[in-house]
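Notes from hallway chat w/ T.B., transcribed later so I don't forget. T.B. wanted the structure written out for a chain they're using in a teaching module, and asked if we could keep both sequence and structure tokens in one place. Agreed to drop them here.
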Amino acid sequence: MSLALALFHHPAGAAAAEDLADLPFKQLVQREVVSGSKLVRQISDSPSAVAIVTAEDIRAYGYRTIADVINSMRGLYTTSDRRYEYLGGRGFGAPGDYTGRIMVLIDGYVTQDSLFNQAYIDESGLLDLALVERVEYVPGTGSVTYGNNAMLGIINIVTRKGSDFNALQLSAEAGSHDTYRQRATFGKRFDNGADLLLSASAMDSQGQNLYFPAYDTPANNHGWANGLDDERNKRFFGKFSFEGLNVEAGYVDRRKTVPTKPTEFTVFNTPFTIEDENSYLNASYETDLGLQLYSTSRFYHGTYAYQNRRVIDDPDPYAQRQHHAKWWGVDQKFVGKWFANHSILFGMEYRNDYHQNMRWTYYTPAQAVASDVQQSYSRNTTSVYMADEFRFHDRWHLNVGARYDKAGDLEGNWSPRVALIYQPDYRTTLKASYSEAFRMPNADNRASYGSGAVPEYVAAKELVLQHNLDRKMRVTGSLYEYRRSKQQVDLTGLGDYAAVGNSQAKGGELEFEARWDNGIRARTSGAWQHSHDTSGQDAINSPNLLGKFQLTSPLPGEWIRVGLEAQYLGSRLTTERRRLGGVSLANLTFSSERKWHGLSASFSIRNLFDRDYEVVSPFNWAPGTGIDALRMDGRTYWFQLNVDL
């Protein structure tokens, strides 16, 4: 299987995958060591170039958030506006576009909320990275499996098991800007095979005083936002597995004070607080029904709440937003092995977004309600899907699939995919694919565009080459083209939007991975991308070049491991079509290779050479003032100490 080969030759996954290479499909789809999610079931012999970052990598390179992990992956990058981290890649990454139409999952559960389709990859995310076994990135469309919003790729976060800890682990961290984090995790595998993982953590950061040249006037404190960068969160996670049953739940409550002027009417250097509260329950049961038929049944439920409070330049100077969403769904999947050389996957999903409420309230100087506007939406979606992996020759096989999604308020949408995979020998794999995907308008789109809110679409082509130089070295290359349609365009510049926009992205990626017997691991990648927006111009915040390099090695004595990471982010256009220069960043991490009486530690330096650089911001209401870019942090530090009891 190409996925097994990918794991086998991945620097951090070789040991786990060695026993998987010879497993038949019917066993591979049920192995939790590959993944407990339907993602891996669908990407066996994936037409895409799968990338994986493991817990080993996370520790070696000192990643603190999912955004850090994403920044290490080929062809991907993130942008921060000091509220959220936004994901970009393969030519797309407009500031404020949330995850850039890439779906983020936890063990197969879709984490996007149903108001904005935002997936939270920073400190607002559902998981502490200590609970992550690996992060899998599958570029290209994923709508055959997941339907709505899996337009440009899938990122699946696979969580660890209780047996990975088999102890009570206490953790404490301290970092720059008075940042502190504590975590308690209990994990155990019981004699009857049941596995339990429980974890709670909290983070608190005072942040820093920040200078914004665009607001350097006496009335605006000479551009300084003082004491307005604090952040805190608390997280809870639990996971229980027994035989074919898996139940997990997560909760996060994050509060952030925003130091920028994120809206046109916000008053600079006044408190602007946002709070995100996110939770989910995901339960599944896998079983062998006999007669070469295997079943996975899944139920999920999610909630999301957002609120902000701010001072605005208006006779009614106090504003508040309160948004809430709730949803649930069921997914029934089958894998049949009734015919020689065929592995048939089919199933159906029902999702009910039964509560989508958005509220805007404005107050007078005396704190009396001046206006209160609410909009409520709901949506139920029924989906059916089917895919077939057909091995019509020892060296050739065909992967075809389609999904049909019908929402109660929209016409139905088809998502087809076809891929041809050729393996001339055991070391080389060639893949060619074509697929289509879509994204339904979310509640925020419906509030903004009214009856003009319609699905947007993408058609994707990709050619992939994977070659294993030996059992511990691999080269991966890919070429791709995306064509998006039905995008919202402001026809007059006065807010008259219509879904008539088309855009295009194309590019190529090359990656080399290696692992040596002496413990050294390395990965390096380069990506070239070029995209045009709906006006035919170069897309904003779309760097033509991305470079990544990671090297980790044990130091003499093999008690300490060092991890060096370098990243290059090419030049990008801002919303004012001003070009920001490319920037090279480096991070350095030291971590304990072995525990000493249950103790382990890590020390990391981010932005090692203290580079002064900017990223593209989504702010564009004051042309010529420089608010179309935001300065990022210089050199920062953090230290972590863990103890197993």
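Follow-up for T.B.: The two ends are 40 Å apart (CA to CA). Might be a good example for the class.
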